[in-house]
Design goal:
The protein is mainly α and about 350 residues long. It has four domains: about 120 residues, no CATH class; about 40 residues, Arc Repressor Mutant, subunit A; about 70 residues, no CATH class; about 80 residues. Helices cover about 65% and strands about 0% of the residues. The protein contains 19 helices and no strands. It is globular, with a radius of gyration of 24 Å. About 15% of the residues are buried. This is TTF1 factor. Pfam families: Myb_DNA-bind_6. GO terms for molecular function: chromatin binding. One of its GO terms (biological process) is termination of RNA polymerase I transcription.
Length: about 350
């Protein structure tokens, strides 16, 4: 396909495709377009966002089958071939001969690139290695000074995943404050979020208003726009003293306080009732994966709060109450909370 035709055909499945680089579009036309059309015939939509447990299992199955077909020793050799220079040529030939791209993405209605990144994260032995020591942070600064944003090179030097070193560097590259938020920091955060939202609204409105009207007018927006897909790295840069996760968590707290008029929704008897309601509602949904949960609808189980607040409370609940929760599926966690924890909470209430 020529580039314009590829963009036009991909746009049906990926609405933001025109914001993607031409090189990436050419790759997607080759790797994804035929798959997307097949999924459409089956009535399956292309997905984005978090991978479900079912999709993770499909990736594992696809990798295991490819290893059996080719005789490659491990998933790490398959996905991180550059770490094994002596086997590199043989592995790359086997990947080409046995159509690795097609096999990896089999049964998963997502762009190939996202599936590949997910597989690398799942099978990277350098991932999930715990907190960075002070010595590691100093090494990271030194390697970044030498190699810039070459995260692949830095990850090899530090035996950490690409994603891990990139995210950690974003946290430590400036003087980040880890203590309580000051009034000045909170104001900076609120102004930064307002600026981002105003820019979005004005872009949608076009140039119908003069610059003076834009800067002074009141804006009315959907509530969801206050916390949905905000550019947190940009907002963190404007705040200057916090990294992006802190900004996101603080903004959720600010919104929760405003939406609840400062009421303590998760303390005392109200807190017990909120936990009970949350467990019951999750159990009634009968979903297999947290990716399928409509957290927006669940928010009234606790009160009028942002969905990120509900997700944070559920995370705390499973970590504190469910033994070995990391090894359980989402539905097993919910069943345990319903059968074991719920009666205890109702008795306390």
């Amino acid at each position: 396909l020529d580039l314009d035709t590829a963009k036009q055909e991909l746009e049906e499945f990926i609405p933001h495709v025109r914001n993607i680089s031409d090189n990436s579009i050419r790759k997607m036309a080759g790797r994804d377009l035929a798959r997307f059309k097949q999924f459409k015939k089956q009535g399956i939509a292309v997905k984005f966002g978090r991978f479900s447990q079912k999709e993770n299992n499909q990736i594992r199955k696809n990798i295991e089958e490819f290893l059996l077909i080719t005789g490659i020793d491990s998933a790490e050799k398959l996905l991180f071939t550059s770490r094994y220079p002596e086997d590199k040529d043989t592995i790359n030939r086997l990947k080409a001969d046995h159509l690795f791209c097609e096999k990896l993405s089999e049964g998963i209605p997502r762009p190939w690139r996202l599936i590949y990144y997910r597989a690398r994260k799942m099978f990277d032995s350098h991932n999930y290695k715990g907190r960075y020591s002070t010595e590691e942070k100093e090494k990271l600064k030194k390697y970044h000074a030498l190699h810039g944003n070459n995260w692949k090179k830095i990850s090899e030097l530090m035996s950490r995943s690409n994603l891990s070193v990139a995210m950690k560097y974003s946290e430590i590259k400036s003087a980040v404050n880890y203590g309580p938020w000051s009034k000045e920091e909170t104001q900076k955060l609120m102004h930064a979020v307002e600026e981002v939202i105003r820019r979005r609204i004005e872009k949608e409105d076009g140039n119908s208003l003069s610059s003076s009207e834009k800067s002074h007018r009141e804006i009315l927006i959907d509530r969801e726009a206050l916390y949905h897909k905000l550019p947190w790295t940009e907002i963190a840069a404007k705040v200057g003293t916090r990294f992006w996760r802190q900004c996101k968590q603080k903004w959720t707290t600010v919104l929760t306080n405003k939406m609840t008029k400062g009421q303590q929704l998760y303390r005392g008897t109200k807190g017990l009732q909120a936990k009970i309601n949350l467990i019951k509602r999750l159990y009634e949904m009968k979903v297999e994966d947290d990716n399928e949960v409509d957290w927006e609808k669940l928010s009234n189980a606790i009160g009028d709060v942002p969905k990120a607040y509900v997700q944070a409370k559920f995370y705390k609940l499973k970590v504190c109450c469910v033994p070995l929760w990391q090894k359980k599926t989402f539905s097993e966690i919910i069943d345990y909370l319903f059968e074991e924890k719920l009666p205890e909470l109702e008795e306390q209430l």
